[in-house]
Amino acid sequence: MNLDPQGLFRDHSDSDDEFELEKEKDPSKEMVVYLIDASPKMFDLVGNDEDKSQTYFHAAISSISQSLKTQIIGKSSDEVAICFFNTKEKKNLQDLNGVFVFNVNDREFLDQPTAKLIKEFSCIEALRNLAGTFMSNIGSQYGIIPGSRENSLYSALWVAQALLRKGSPKYVSKRILVFTNEDNPFGNITGAAKTDMIRTTVQRAYDAQEMGISIEILPLSIPNEPFNVSHFYADLIGLEGDEVAQFLPSAVERLEDMTDQLTKRIFKKRIVRTISFSIAEGINIEVNTYALIRPALPGSVTWLDSVTNLSLKAERSFICADTGALVHEPPKRFHPYKNENVKFSVDELSEIKRISNGHLCLLGFKPLDLLKDYHNLKPSTFIFPTDEAIIGSTKIFIALHRSMLQLKRFALAFYGGSANPRLVALVAQDGVTSSSGQVEPPGMHMIYLPFSDDIRHVEELQTTADAGVPHATDDQIKKASVLMKRMELKDFSVCQFANPALQRHYGILQALALGEDEMPDIKDETLPDEDGMARPTIVNALEDFKIAVYGENHDLEEVSSKKSSGTDASRKRKAMVEAAVESAANHDWADLADNGKLKDLTVPELKNYLTAHNIPVTGKKEALISRILTHLGR
């Protein structure tokens, strides 16, 4: 949440209006227009390497293509539009020159991404020469030239703004992403014409921002020529002071994130539900709940019609057992009492079963050290105050939050409805900020506490009276501690590792949807780091641990143990073969094969023949008979 913790949690005596908390409403949908510069400069080779045909234009296309593949899985309800500017051909509702909106059939200009759109758009990325389809069908030119009043950048912003008109900014996040390697689009013109073009273009950007549309520039810097945002784009997107110097590193990070991001579900920050928090008798406030990190799962199964491939809708109907007619009225519940059926409505039954009204009710406070790690059974829920329905909720929440932090207490509360009522612990979290912005927001974590029978005591090792319980020595504990420290991952986070099974699942979906012949390469980041494990410090620590636990000659003991186990296995194998040979000798296999009587034998008898002749014994009975006939030459 982009809130200032200093302003939010300042003393109430401060009367500065600029620190007044505004109501936050998280958009549930996102609309993005990709504006891609198609001028001839964008078709220069990256790094001037003649051996490579990668251009700035295709780098942008590749980034957007990868982003669309991710979005169609993680955020399929969001809408996108792809727009080229500085083109020879034009295709837009405003009929403006130099602007071409890329689209496919059966799809609006701004709509949800489809497999057909991604497939055809990716074909542009595959064409690495100027004689490709893009040049022949759309074309490239400089849209801002001396002696002409044409302003392709202004037109592109106009088209993008028009595409983003639908949807209220209160519920929809709207963005325009501009890809270009030209930091001074008006550098070729001078005089009053240049001033007028810059003024009108910047004003067009301001008009879009007033409509709740954010504009971002993702520059593709030319080697030895850093993208100078102060030439023009700083005014376009409203950068001032230190923001200008910090813009280029942050923009490069965004572009790299867009190119290299994993195909995984992206859960947006959105309110799960708004609940009432009862502090005391007659004092209620409202808080919003947010779901924190959750394990990503494959999408739910959707049943499709085998002919039309459309989603199926399941419907249920009740049929009267006496008349066979459809029952349109909702069924009534009853309970027999003294030879009479007492009827209950659905609302009455719900009221009888209700243990709680589903709100959060404060019970008391306890010291933080009484809350153990094993009390956290599942991911917690983050709660944050809202003044949308009850004015003053934030002030009461702040007072409670401050007191809990100062006294090092957590709040014990009752939460849940009739289905799953339980006790929860509310742990206050202070806001954390850094030079780049807010790291952790202030608020409270709602931890779901276990019931008494959810906690099981550790089972002690049962031994005989004359045998002692084995304990690790101090030296063994020391060697184990050293080994763990050597193998410890620095700055570990579960977010650093993707689920390889999910990545493969999404890769298969992508290949099927886009008609790709090959599966995308999936990097399994959960595999052990063999190079890291081979470092001398880890190898030495591991060897010291083995010596402390198993003794000096543990390697020789392992070798002798393997030889012994190998000898036993070979002995058993030899005895099994001898038994199979002896059993197989009881049948005339050639006669059985000629008369078709092999099928009358049991599977163990067939396997005896195969084992006696060192033939595989896997498979069903038909496969065993086929192997025997092949071996007999029948």
TrEMBL record:
Its EC number is 3.6.4.12. It comes from the Eukaryota. Keywords: ATP-binding, Helicase, Hydrolase, Nucleotide-binding. It is an enzyme of class 3 (hydrolase). This is ATP-dependent DNA helicase 2 subunit 1 protein.
